[in-house]
Amino acid sequence: MIVTIVSIWVKEPFIERFIEATKDNHRHSVSEPGNLRFDVLRHQKEPNRFTLYEAYRTEQDVLDHKNTEHYRRWKTTVEEWMEKPREGVPHTVIAPEDPSLWK
Amino acid sequence: MIVTIVSIWVKEPFIERFIEATKDNHRHSVSEPGNLRFDVLRHQKEPNRFTLYEAYRTEQDVLDHKNTEHYRRWKTTVEEWMEKPREGVPHTVIAPEDPSLWK
Fold this sequence. Notes:
The structure is a homodimer.
Chain A: E1 2-9, H1 15-29, E2 35-43, E3 49-56, H2 59-66, H3 69-78, E4 87-95
Antiparallel strand pairs in A: 1-3, 1-4, 2-3
Helix pairs in contact in A: 1-3
């Protein structure tokens, strides 16, 4: 399992549109066969900062996600709304160890 | 729902002990009635850096977690093993909106 935690800073005028586009990405991503989680979060103290928590079974599933139509649509749509490039940090999983507990 | 993402940097000689103590904290925390998730992750590129992903139903559940015996035991045990103070960032949830999808 791989978890990528993505930090995104959004320019204030685009926040509502960013949220809608990212909900669309969420809805499609959780239907991918290799996806385990795709949580969309907002920082309590910095409301223009968002976090995506993307869990996949394998590295191949991560690559497959980046080739989906919904990911490409999201990326193209939101890229100009970001204050700076987003940062994705890949993690390995220590717990829970059982993948069935992730879905 | 509240998600706290905690970043922890561990001094190299204590990494294995930190992992064991944190698995213990994980096992007990997921049994708390207000807990939705308690994932323990390790950075792929900085192996002495760890992330806890702690989701709770309410702010009160977050407070209750901090009063549990297992949390206090974990905190006391691992505190001296950290390179610097850990950083916890609280988030609100945008998606999934349905709490039943979090457990």
